[in-house]
Amino acid sequence: MKLTGSGPLIAIPTFTWFIIALFISSAMKPVFLITEEHYAYLVVLAVLMLAVDMANLVSCGLRLIKSYRQKVLITDGAYKVCRNPIYVSHILLTIPALSLLFDSWLLFSAMLVAIISVLIFAPREYKYLEEEFGDKYRNYVKSVWIKFI
Description:
This protein is mainly alpha-helical. Helices cover about 75% and strands about 0% of the residues. Helix 1 packs antiparallel against helix 6 and helix 5 (about 85-100) runs antiparallel to helix 6.
């Protein structure tokens, strides 16, 4: 398994749908508009969400790189909450933030595509981790707070 895991397999359908939804939203601008009067508030909220997402990405990403090189299973920090904190962060922060920046309700639908993609492709990572770490990984899966993702 590569360091990127299932990330590219999850990103491709999510990004593709996001671009399609962006074109649809642009073509039907008033239909999917979130707000006409308070766009500045959306921008502020989106920037804050992206800042939190970037902090999580850097934190989890650096730990992931280190653990991958050392062949160590990460079981604490954000990884104590769920097995895929980077995917979850993108679903709960990146996609909504970009939806706010582009001022379109339709773009939020990319969250559903991302969730479905994670549910389809992440099990490849789980299988690899179970083969690599055995009981340690199985016990970790039982201990995470959010088990389905």
